[in-house]
Amino acid sequence: MDTLNYLMHGFGVALAPINLLLATLGAVVGTMVGVLPGLGPINAVAMLVPVVFALGLPPEASLILMAAIYIGSEYGGRISAILLNVPGEASAVMTALEGYPLARQGQAGIALSLSAWTSFAGSAIATLGIVLAAPVLAQWALAFGPVEYVALMVFAFACLTGLLTDQPVKAMLAIGLGLAVSTIGIDANSGVYRYTFGSPNLVDGVQFATVVIGLFAISELLIMLDTMHGGAAVRIEQLGRSLFNRVEMRFTNMATLRGSLIGFFVGILPGAGGTVASALAYTTEKRVVEKNDPEGSRFGQGDMRGLASVEAANNSASNSNFIPMLTLGIPSSGTTAIMLGVLTLYNLTPGPALFRSQPDLVWGLIASLFIGNFILLAINIPLVGVFARMLSVPAWVLVPFIVVVSAIGVYSGKSTTFDLLLMVGLGVGGYLLRRLGVPMAPLILGLVLGKILEQSLRRALSLSAGDVAILWSSPISIALWIMAAAVLLVPLLLPRFTRWRHKTALQVD
Amino acid sequence: MTTDRLLGATAIAVAAIMFVFAYGLQAPFAYEPVGPRAFPLIAAGMIALCGVILVLKPGEPSAEPAGPIGALAALSGGLVGYALLFQPLGFVIATTIFMIPIAMIFGAKWWQGAMTGVVLAVSSYLLFDRMLEVVLPIGPFGGII
Asked: Does B28 reside within a domain?
């Protein structure tokens, strides 16, 4: 079997001492990042972009580190959600619904270890799914030309606006802004300077690291000021019995499996990450339990099945997020968008050809997801107390730390004051946009995909000598256009869907 | 005027500026049917369309309270100052000076801020500049200070 050979090869890459070290480091850092409120995986990965270059890491090592941080933060996000009712990041909101009541009943230890186990199970199922589905999808996507790519990217954008948010217009605005930023600098085809306003700092475009650090890390600091004025003292509940038993495991097995499958499929869709997956898994599980076992349902007061399905789902989704990223070059979350951006910084073109041209990178990354999940399980069950203690790190240590690392990261690229000022400006601008309800992830997606979209569009129209009809000339592209239109139009035609989305959006907020 | 209308109007203004600057973009030697001008115009059109929709059909304003405006302004000002003086003062001095007020905005006492600033400045200088070879600006006296 070809896949098995490649996977074995991938394990060879992932088990190289340096990569194993990076995966472990990423797992620890990721869990910490997930625990700390105000530091999500996006911010951490964004701050790392310049650092991996400074370290001179090869592309597969950079991606392994970033992926470990990404999946680790999903593990970490549950800790503060369960102990304090404060989700460390967005996808842990649903975790708090059942996890916190359990902690209040003195079962925090069980809730933490059980959710670590279901996180692991969800991730493992999703990683298995990647191994099975990704090569097939990549093989199929090899037939994609520029025409199909244009349609595919439009479909991805449509998913982002249609599925993700309560206010699709604002997501579309964010995409437009991202596309606009991607055009800044010298045009590769014609040598024309676009939007440089005579500044030499803008000739080769805006540094990717500056944009992501400004929009995520810096704007998050201002958001922290909005949410801080409670100043709640941290009081951690007693952990109680620290390990779940076999009865509890059997009790939650089906919930874990359902959550993992929901998470896997949601994670494949562009634009829908762990947040949507966990919301969907929770509502599904609640419905299933209320139908089959109405007596035993303790949803809202600490039902372990709710906790299990949510954690399985959001970890499963964060792993299956890698499928569209690796096979199609279409990221489905802000964090994977940044990783794709990093690939382009290494002069690698994301897309199905990666499976053939960069087997080390692709299969090394997939294998490292397996390994990373084992490491995460191994550190999360015994060390949960240590991570929980990080919750008492005061904001006045955390914020200066983020500022300094961000500034160093941005400065390391081109060593200019201009980039530092741009970072602060984007931070303030990003804060204002977020306050106005404009999501940041679609903006990053627009930025990352903008160049590829423009190149595909121009190549396609060169092939047809300017005739736009070529854009819907192949069956695949027609199918993608119809799907894009459906994703955009269904919410308009079905008020019931809009209400559902509104409800999940509210719960997620 | 709701905040959404303001956002929409700003978007239209941004799109107009983009349109003006993109309109004159022409390739000196055109060897492809789509030049450098089309894509910026598409992006501008998308932004303008969203702006118009937001002006015509604004949503409910967000109910979340904003942080104290003084603290927001102070943090933004502190960050701008740090960005401007990062190179002239050198990494260690600029970091120490600016992290004190930033820490204090987030509830530190002045000496806690000062400690955070000094420890962060020196340790990250040693870590990044000396160990990881990320070159950081040196101070006006030519050394770490």
From this structure: yes
* pLDDT for residue A55 is more than 80: no
Q: Buried b / exposed e across A359-371, counting CB within 10 Å, b at 16+?
A: bbbbbbbbbbbbb
Assess B29–A contact: CB distance below 8 Å, yes or no. yes
Going from N- to C-terminal start, the domains of chain A cover: 2-508
**In-domain check, residue B112:** yes
Containing domain of residue B127, as a range? 69-131
- Is residue B21, in this structure, part of any structural domain at all? yes
Residue in A424, A438, A455 to test binding to B, most B beta-carbons within 10 Å: A424
ipTM over 0.90: yes
Pair B43, B94 in one domain = no
| Contact with chain A for residue B116, Cβ under 8 A | yes
pLDDT for res A88 = 64
**Cα nearest neighbour of A397 on chain B:** B116
Q: Are A426 and A444 in contact (CB under 8 A)?
A: no
Please give the average per-residue pLDDT across A136-150, as a whole number: 85
pLDDT at B63 over 70: no
Give A5's pLDDT tier (boundaries 50, 70, 90).
confident
Contact B19/A at CB under 8 A: no
Q: Do B51 and B74 fall into the same domain?
A: no
User: What is the distance between the alpha carbons of residues A467 and A465, in angstroms, rounded to a whole number?
Assistant: 6
Q: How far apart are the first and last CA of chain A?
A: 45
Nearest chain B residue to A230 by CA distance is: B67
